Amino acid sequence: MKRKIAEKLVANVNDMVVYHQMYQYMVNILEQQEKLCSRKIIILCIGSDRYIGDALGPLVGSYLEEHTKCIVYGSLDKPVHAGNLVAVIQKIKEQYHDPIIIAVDACLGKHNEIGNIEVWEGALEAGIAVGNKLPYIGTISIIGVVNASGYLGYLDLQSTPLSIVMKLSKCIGRVLGDAVNSIGDK
Questions:
Q1: With 0-12 CB in 10 A as exposed, 13-18 as middle and 19+ as buried, what is 141?
Q2: ∠ CA 59-8-67 to the nearest 5 degrees?
Q3: What is the largest CA-CA distance in the chain?
Q4: Residue 2 banded pLDDT, cuts 50, 70, 90
Q5: Is the pTM above the cut of 0.90?
Q6: 117 and 10 in contact (C-beta within 8 Å)?
Q7: 167: closest CA among 28, 53, 20, 23?
Q8: Which three-class secondary structure state does DSSP give residue 79?
Q9: What pLDDT score was predicted for residue 30?
Q10: HSE-up of 126 (CA within 13 Å, CB side)?
Q11: How do strand 100-109 and strand 41-45 relate by DSSP bridges?
């Protein structure tokens, strides 16, 4: 799967209009998908609870499992991480024909980007901040910038404040749940 980024939305979790911006953007991207009505929407939440900063994906997945009827892979109870991502992607491909996969992951950025949420049409490459070489995945991608990138990789994820991860996960989870549900209602 190729990484295609024509344009992307960048919003900060502390902005008053972040929910509205992300919701509209997600609905627009979803409505532009070919054969939307006949394709399943899968939300793939990547990460692990071993490091606070990497728990963004599993927290979003757990939120969605509790508050929506979305098809979710990756939660606190059943995380999707570097060790099982390839197998989970294979399972999704075997179980669903041409699904729309929304990939969610944490990332490290610059200090002034902490709290940003980026959404784009196209794939993301999980694990690059810590040197993992994993496949590109996602029809649509969402990343949350949890901390500043340094030379420490996993230690940067480990030293991430839980408060920023929780804010990001609640915002992303709520937007995704509402956007996917609104598409299903049409």
A1: buried
A2: 25
A3: 47
A4: very low
A5: yes
A6: yes
A7: 53
A8: coil
A9: 96
A10: 28
A11: parallel
